[in-house]
Each structure stands twice: as structure tokens, then as C-alpha cells.
Amino acid sequence: MHERDAVSTEADVDERRIEGALRPRALDEFVGQERVREQLSLVLHSAQRRNRAPDHILMSGGPGLGKTTLAMIIAAELGAPLRITSGPAIERSGDLAAVLSTLQEGEVLFLDEIHRMARPAEEMLYVAMEDFRVDVVVGKGPGATAIPLDIAPFTLVGATTRAGMLPAPLRDRFGFTAHMDFYEPAELERILHRSAGLLNAPLEDDAAREIAGRSRGTPRIANRLLRRVRDYAEVRGDGDLTLANARAALELYEVDALGLDRLDRAILDALMKRFRGGPVGLSTLAVSVGEEAETVEVVAEPFLVRSGFLARTPRGRVATPQAWEHMGLTPPPDAAFGAAQAVASAASSASGTDGGDGATP
After folding, report:
1. What's the whole-model pTM score?
2. What's the 3-state SS for 226-254?
């Protein structure tokens, strides 16, 4: 396994199969996202009382936070079939028409990565969401004819990791929009204990706390690290999921106490040692760690920025004081954040707000 796999938010086919066995089946079993669950429960129960399909639902948030799980729960709560597809799979409007025309009444259509759908299909979806109709074009050129085709009322559940890339006309057609937040460590501990029970691998509280603290606020990562700790305990440990085995396993997979992995630390190390803390351009930083610029920007940077280790400025990426401290390095006097702090400290001293000799009148 590559080091990055341990804390990657993406999942391959085999991992999705494992995730399927660990997923909750009802809203009451879903841990975290309290406000979203409460709002979603009202939307679904209201629709059931009126015996109508609920409004279309849009869920946004980072990978691994439970969007697919909630889509499956929505279908289960409604007692309706679930159809799953993704934006990249809809390359032409005809692909979407083929899916929509075969939907049953009340069926839930889950469209993952909806922002990556082809533009012609997107425009067809506008009409389908509002009027439950698709216009099928027959022929080409001046002789082409649009034939309206009614489709069964359905509920679209769209998921996106980049809500800002959705055009306004599409966003406005969703009756309910939910934003998935990152999870608190206590919520991840509950998820880990539940998953450990399903895996028949009893987990000690201290070990669950250790894994949760390194999971970057993401259930997918937490469950993956749990499986790695279980593997370590079975092969090299005593078989028990203890704190000692958890720490040893996570050290082996190069996931530190705050969830940073090899790539995260390589980026911070290069930024500080080679570029004196920045600012430095994305492409230059990517070359310095031997990765593609897109990998640094999409895979590593969001977590580093959210954790307060990296700042994006108009001039480039800059290491923060927290990053210098975490890496055990001392920033040079002319470091971007160091200089700013020195100026702020001097100004504070001059005004007497730091509790020094120059007290305020």
C-alpha cells in the first residue's frame, strides 16, 4: 500500500464494497451531521404524509463524509428503489435521457459528482427536475424534431465536492440543500466503535480516541485506519485493538498525531527548508516534492489549509506559525508569517496592550 492510501479521501472498488457493509441503513443509525439529519427527516416525513415524492436534494461536502450513505438512507426511508450514477458517466444528453426514461414513479436517482456532468445533459436535467419531462431530439440539422417524453415523478439526490462549480440554474432547482461538515473526534469515536463491532474486532476506548484524532475529521479515513490497526494487531500484535497497537500501526503507515502523512510533511518540509516558509507558487512547490500540481492542490492542500498549517495568498503558499511549530523548526526572521507577527507584537507593545511596562493611561 502506498503511504497516501491510508489518509486518502478517495475509495477504490474493493474499499467501497467494504464500506457498504459498514454503512448505516437508517437515519437513526447515522452518526454526526445532526442538523442535516434533522432537516432531512422533516423533508422526508412531510413528503410521505402528502404521499408525494420529496423535493430534489443537493448534498455538498468533501469526499468520505457520508453523501452516498445518506442517499441510500433516503431511498430506504422512502421505501423506494435507488438508481446510482455519476456526473462523469453522463457524457451526452442521450445518456441522461436513457436513465430518466426508465425510472419508476417515486424512484430516487443518486447523481454523484453532479458538477462534472456534460453541459447538454445538464440543460436536459433542468426540464426533467421541474416538469418531469425530457425532450428527445430526432434527426439532425434543420429537419431535427424535439419529441417531448413524460417521465415518472422522481427525486434527484445530487452530490458534489465542489458546490461552487454548479451553475445557478441547476442549484436553484433543488428544494433542499445540505452541507456536510467534517466530524468531531467524539463522533468519529462512535463511528469507530460501531464499525469495530461489525468487524468483530472489539476496540478499546483509548485506541478509538487515538484513531479518531488522526482521521482528519472524515469517517472514510477513520474506518480505513481502523482496518489497518486491526491488521497490525492480528499480524504483529496480540490481536487486541489497544492503544499501543493503534500507535504502532499508525506510525508504520506514517500517519502522525494530527493526521498528516508523508506527502503533507514533505510539502511543509520543502516550503520551510527550501523556500524559507514562502510565499511560493503551487507548481514550484509541487515540483519540489515530486508530485503533480493537481495532486498537491486537490489532495493535500485542503487539509493543510483547514488545519492551519498552510495559507494561500495572492503571492503563493505560505507556512503558518503552527506549521513551523509542528515540524519542530524555527522560522527565520524574514519568514512571511514571522515578520507579520513581529510587526503585530511591536504594535501591541507600543500601545501597551501586552501587559508590559507601557501601560495604557
Report:
1. 0.77
2. HHHHHHHHHHCCCCCECHHHHHHHHHHCC
